[in-house]
Amino acid sequence: MAESMETKQMETTGAKRRTVCVVGHKNPDTDSICSAISYTYLKNQIDPEKKYVACRAGQPNPETQYVLDRFNAELPLLMTNIGTRVKDMDIREVPGVRSDISVREAWTLMRRENVFTLAITDEEDHLNGLITVNDIAKSYMDENDDAIVSKAKTPYKNILKTLEGKMVVGDENACFEQGKVLIAAANPDVMEAYIDEHDMVVLGNRYEGQLCAIEMNAGCIVVCLGTPVSKTIQLMARDHGCTVIETPLDTYAVARLINQSMPVEYFMKKNDLVTFRRSDFTEDIREIMSSKRFRDFPILDKRDRYTGMISRRNLLGVHKRALILVDHNEISQAVDNVEDAEILEIIDHHRLGSLETINPVYFRNQPVGCTATIIYQMYQENGVEIPPQIAGLLCSAIISDTLLFRSPTCTPLDRMTAETLAKIAGISCEEHARNMFEAGSNLKSKTPEEIFYQDFKKFEVSGQTLGIGQVTSMSSSELQEIKDRMVPYLEKAYEKQDMDIMIFMLTNIIEQATELLCYGEKAASLVEEAFPEVKVVNNCARVQSLVSRKKQVVPAIMAALVRNDGDEAGD
């Protein structure tokens, strides 16, 4: 459902307004989602030439959901992969054709549209097959079967159109289904030895030849050079069930063109078709396209209807999706395939991470406790009034990230901003914080896996992958209960996770203390080096005055990792 919503949003944007996605990090917290919504609103106010869409890279936690419900805010669209899709390519919208059109008509259409492949579709645009230039060439050059026109069940309307002829006797909607095609160039005595029942005989204005063909029970005679067919011959043809066609072309032209009247259905490829959908990622189709010798690949929509063609060349001109990152700048925390996107801006308050961009971007990073504080400043700088709903979201983000101003990451600017926003939103910071934290700490109904990924981030440093998760609560008993449930799960999770070190924080907001659960070969010694005052026992360590992952845990652990890396290099 989330994927279809995303697709709908992306495809409804007109060519004049480019869609820009504003998204936070994986396992989003309140700041990540509220900042994405608030910054999207601001950008749509100051830049009407683009369409900004708020997105999220994961499911909201209970605290964030409470905030969204409290301020009547819509949940952003789910977008876990920003990789380019087939719909971001220049799809050639060549219409499909019906299976009964002639090879000549298909060739004419290919030349007019400058394409090498045509899709054969039914009345509802479902794909039935493909016809290529090579298929047409083979039908003309490689076929020596003089009965192929009947084997192809060629409609007479195709023959009339190809030969520029008219039906004198017979049914235009019928098909030539039996017999071979031959040229009656000899006298009637010789012709009798060659004409079989149901054959199509191409001849001139000789009355004897026409009469002989009819008497030999030919299925059709084609009279060339525009010669009128006599009434007598027409009557005899009707009596014998013989179709009569007049054409202004000579016998050589008819012999050359008659195979081109066959329907494309006879030559088209029907089985093992390689098709892609508009929603397919280009990363997934690239290898398939390179391994096939096909020139063109048909594209289907979500209802399996044919919409156009792409070739390998179209991969070179794929249109990258535009992206704004909020509350992160680590590639490990970003949506999948972020390298394939065109990043326009980054708004963040964390350390500089591993993300690289091809082009220069607008990058705003300030040492404050919350991204929402920076976005509030940008509202002020652009002179945009903050609606009460947006004020409530921004204030909630600051309260969440700073643990109601208790976190060491909190600055005077954060507190002042939150208090200003609270007045606009008509809320009390203390009361709202209590409701938020109670909603967020209600983890009894959550599985250990859901708790683990509720607020989990990955970091890369000194060639090591570090994963740190955190839950907060105002209740010591609740944290103990969570610990009892999480310890068995974390031991298994560490074995499955592609990480060198994993740390899980159980933070008591009231006591401003955290219990660290650490896993990994060097995890215990690393924690003890990062926090010399503690001792790790059974993978657990309690650290007083520790509440912030960003400002207290991540820097201390990374510094210890760097020191260890330096010591090993010295050895």
Short description:
The chain is of the alpha/beta class. It contains 20 helices and 23 strands.
Structural commentary:
The chain has 3 domains: 2-84 and 321-440, inorganic pyrophosphatase (n-terminal core), CATH 3.90.1640.10; 103-266, Udp-n-acetylmuramoylalanyl-d-glutamate--2,6- Diaminopimelate Ligase, Chain: A, domain 1 (3-Layer(aba) Sandwich), CATH 3.40.1390; 448-570, DHHA2 domain (Diaminopimelate Epimerase, Chain A, domain 1), CATH 3.10.310. The two termini are 55 Å apart. It is built from 20 helices and 23 strands. The chain has 571 residues and is an alpha/beta fold.
CATH topology call of the largest domain = inorganic pyrophosphatase (n-terminal core)
At CATH's second level, what is the architecture of the largest domain?
A: Alpha-Beta Complex
Helix and strand composition category: alpha/beta
Tell the overall outline. elongated
Q: What is the rounded Rg?
A: 37 Å
> Which parts are unreliable, with pLDDT below 50 for 5 consecutive residues or more?
1-14
Query: How many structural domains are formed by the residues?
Result: 3
- Total helical segments: 20
As a percent range, the share of strand residues is 15-25%
Q: Between the first and last Cα atoms, what is the distance in angstroms?
A: 55 Å
- In round numbers, the mean pLDDT is 89
* Largest sheet, spatial ordering of strands: 3-2-1-16-17-18
Name of the top-level CATH class of the largest domain: Alpha Beta
Total DSSP E strands: 23
Q: What proportion of the residues is helical, as a percent range?
A: 25-40%
Q: So, the CATH homologous superfamily of the largest domain?
A: inorganic pyrophosphatase (n-terminal core)
